[in-house]
Fold this protein.
Amino acid sequence: MKILIIGSKDRYDIFDPEIEVKKNAELVFAGRGTPDDTLLAAGADADVLFADAISPVSRYLIENMPQLKLINSEGVAYDRIDLAAAKEHGIYVCNNKGCNAGAVAEHTVFLMLGLLRNAVEGQEAVLAGNQIRMKERRMAEGIIELSECSVGLYGFGDIAKATAKRLAAFGCKVYYTARSRKDAETEKEYNVTWLSPDELIRTCDFISLHTDVNPGTRGLVDSSFLSKMRTGAMLVNTSRGELVDNQALREALLSGRIAGFAADTIAPEPVTADNPLVALPPEIMKKVFYSPHLGGITAGTFKRAHRMMWENAARIEAGEMPQNRVF
């Protein structure tokens, strides 16, 4: 079996499991951003393609790999894979569903706390010798505890469920909205209450995005969405940057329409210094808290993901159907 891998060889060396299928597999590595023709020159005859979650897998690439049977995202996201082309050629597309749920849930709570406690501004104040000045200002303004906040989970997949579990420990009121309401047993298990999308947006202190990117959700957080958020509410995005209309969110921050924004993912990636959500005035920078898309890239996530991928490769070699199929 030949496997073409778009991604860091170092990650595979560190996190790959000991599994029988690896022993006889021919592995060809290519870095993220490698042109399609270079990929084909090295691995046009590959049976399996493992792809970094933000690397494009184009129709051209798929159509010129005649032996390809499986494309497996290294992560949970698969929106950069040409699904229509894969389907037309009878190629399985799989992801590593759930592998990063706990890690991203932890990070979501971290971003909420960072906004409430002005984490970046606080560190800067200490380093500049202004600790007491900021402390006195924050006491006068009033610091809100996470336990006092209502949190609305927009989407209710694996990560949202893991987030709900963690928020329960803080004593938050947690609400959710999704394509369909869950049964009473599930709501009780995760200590969540259903709200319609509009009710969720209008009601909650935090709106936390946990939905996938598709034609119906791309640019979901637009001026209309933001206008419905209650005064003083904050937005958190640990899902995908493409869910957000950057210019609309920028205007909402500048106008004070929302009180804060925290994100682990901003589109497009790689994020540049002139991005509308990055090139903000100093007074607005106090209202944002960003991390470099590392919420789901823990060692535990990669160990789980790589095991899933190699187990799928073993299934393909055995003529079996892989798990976590997108279709």
User: Anything to note?
Assistant: The radius of gyration is 22 Å.
